[in-house]
Amino acid sequence: MNDWYMQLGLSHCQRDASAADGSRTRQDRDRAQITETHRRWPGIVSAIRTLARRYNDGAGREVLTVIDNADGHSDALVVTIVASGAQTLRVAVNGAELCVRPTPTAIGAADDGQRWITFGATDGAIAAYALQDWLAHL
User: Fold this and answer.
1) CB-count burial class (<10 Å; 0-12, 13-18, 19+) for 34
2) pLDDT by residue, tens only, the chain of 138 residues
3) CA distance 102 to 82
4) Whole-model pTM above 0.85?
5) Is residue 102 part of a domain?
6) Residue 14 is assigned to a structural domain of this protein
């Protein structure tokens, strides 16, 4: 009978160790993704600036202005694109993803237009995807 308690204790110890290993693995993966996100951020902002310049060139005037770290926090990775009609698109790093949020009037009152983008594509493709829907609705 005492062997059963010993085996049960051993089994629970192994289960807890396995769960802790899994948790450490997830935390390590999350840290690596966040590090990669921060490493790629300057390239994404550069691609956003390039696309805004191309849009302005096509419009023949300065329609879009790109403001990096618009929320005033030096550690926050945020870029805001402001259109001449005071409509804005905010692109911010949140963990290992980008949160893209336009002003509600840019899409419609019923839908705030918030989208999440993962970092699976190139910097240019991410920037294009972040801007495309918003620009189409200007």
Assistant:
1) middle
2) 788 888 888 888 888 878 777 777 778 887 888 888 889 999 999 999 999 999 999 999 999 999 987 555 557 899 999 998 889 999 999 888 899 999 875 445 445 678 999 888 999 999 999 999 999 988
3) 10
4) no
5) yes
6) no
